[in-house]
Write a structure and sequence with these properties.
Elements lengths: L20 H14 L21 H9 L9 E5 L5 H9 L4 E6 L2 H14 L6 E5 L12 E7 L8 H10 L1 E12 L5 H14 L6 H14 L5 H9 L7 H8 L9 H11 L2 E5 L8 H4 L3 H7 L4 H11 L5 E7 L11 H6 L1 E4 L10 E3 L5 E3 L2 H13 L5 H4 L7 H9 L3 E4 L1
Parallel strand pairs: 1-2, 1-4, 2-3, 4-5
Antiparallel strand pairs: 5-7, 6-7, 8-11, 9-10
Length: 414
């Protein structure tokens, strides 16, 4: 790996307010002290539903193909903001110790109140006011690190991802979310326009929000930026916190698949997959043309990712997992090994028990009578019976069980 890797260049209006990285870090802190983010309302209940990426057994199964052997793990929420993700991490992983860090003391204050209100176990979560650059001050290593919406706001994301990698335990996973340039082109244009109109007042975030809202109100209804805002972001951007985070942030780097993998390579971690794999399936775009699919078969994985985003340039973000070697994976291709596996139902299903469920990505799945009966057996066995035992007296093919696993409807463990 080259040691002289440089971060992708930012658009002109997204250049740091000052060249000094500390000045940029301070500006970002000021933004989030002014507009704590995300502005999700506090609740006196546990957060609703599942985000499977924050549920250790689901993340472990996605990354390795099998359920974990233990759930008493350490989780780091790196750049926790106002604690929306932290709240899920604590409630979805009742045996885990969770450490959350953030640059903004104002955001941390909201996060602490959020978890107090939701009834989170205070003995299992702690907060630290730290930059990701300073993670060496956090004790120990972590099995799972969550870093959502942070690296693209750092003046040196390579240094940031390396700091995260250094805190990852061997065999552990890093979940990352960063912005994509192709699907945010209109956002970039509005960012530049606001920056031009702010001039020397750039860094006054309330002024930036006011200018941005005036622009959207003044532009013609047919304007491309207005139309894009209405189609994609208007509902969430009713809140000034969201509008400021999107349009007047002092530091932003947007990636494409090529610059993304340069960043990943700088981490020395292994890419384990995008957590929305259906999008990265070329068959959905040109699968009806055998000649094109044959030509694409000769492409590397990274070239195929680039082709997909060029053909479908609505990529507003990339969400993916990295892992620190050594990593053990199971594909369950050995039939005898598969028969000995012990299945459990994925709890990140909406509508279960029912023949019509929403999978962890909220897509509808229609189960056959036989599939439903097998999953009920899995539920009743609570992970104590093998597939071979659960198939006794049924005609369900082993291939169907494998399909349930491939659809993330069940977990498998030995």
């Amino acid at each position: 790996m080259s040691q002289d890797f440089e971060a992708p260049a930012q658009p002109a209006a997204n250049q740091p307010i000052a060249d000094d990285a500390q000045a940029v870090t301070t500006a970002v802190e000021q933004l989030y002290n002014t507009y704590p983010f995300p502005p999700d309302p506090l609740s006196d209940e546990a957060p609703p539903g599942y985000n499977w990426r924050w549920y250790w057994p689901a993340a472990h199964s996605f990354c390795t193909g099998r359920a974990p052997n233990q759930n008493n793990i350490r989780i780091l929420d790196a750049g926790c903001g106002t604690g929306n993700g932290t709240d899920y991490l604590v409630h979805l992983n009742p045996e885990a110790e969770v450490v959350a860090v953030d640059l903004s003391p104002g955001a941390i204050a909201v996060a602490e109140e959020r978890l107090r209100r939701s009834g989170a176990d205070a003995n299992r979560v702690s907060f630290q006011n730290l930059s990701i650059y300073d993670l060496d001050q956090v004790e120990g290593e972590f099995d799972l690190i969550n870093c959502v919406g942070v690296l693209h706001h750092m003046p040196d994301p390579v240094r940031g991802i390396r700091a995260l990698a250094n805190k990852l335990q061997p065999g552990g996973f890093l979940h990352i979310f960063v912005y994509g340039e192709l699907g945010r082109w209109e956002v970039q244009l509005m960012q530049k326009a606001i920056a031009l109109l702010q001039g020397e007042k750039r860094g006054d975030y309330k002024d930036g929000v006011a200018i941005g809202r005036s622009l959207f109100a003044s532009l013609p209804e047919t304007n491309r930026l207005v139309q894009y805002e209405k189609q994609r972001w208007a509902a969430e951007n009713q809140r000034d916190e969201c509008f400021a985070d999107m349009y007047v942030h002092p530091q932003e780097i947007d990636y494409n698949s090529e610059s993304l993998f340069e960043l990943i390579d700088a981490s020395d971690l292994e890419f384990l997959g995008f957590s929305n794999p259906d999008f990265w399936n070329l068959d959905r775009l040109v699968g009806q043309n055998p000649d094109l699919m044959e030509r694409a078969a000769g492409l590397s994985d990274r070239q195929r990712y680039r082709l997909i985003e060029l053909l479908d340039p609505n990529v507003t973000h990339y969400e993916f997992f990295l892992g620190k070697p050594p990593l053990q994976r199971s594909d369950w291709s050995d039939e005898e090994v598969l028969r000995q596996a012990k299945p459990t139902c994925n709890p990140c299903l909406h509508g279960w028990p029912s023949k019509m469920v929403l999978n962890p990505d909220y897509r509808p799945i229609q189960l056959s009578d036989e599939e439903f009966a097998f999953m009920e057996r899995c539920d009743n066995a609570e992970g104590k019976a093998s597939i071979s035992e659960l198939l006794e007296g049924t005609d369900l093919p082993l291939e169907t069980v494998l399909s349930l696993w491939q659809q993330s409807l069940i977990f498998l463990a030995l």
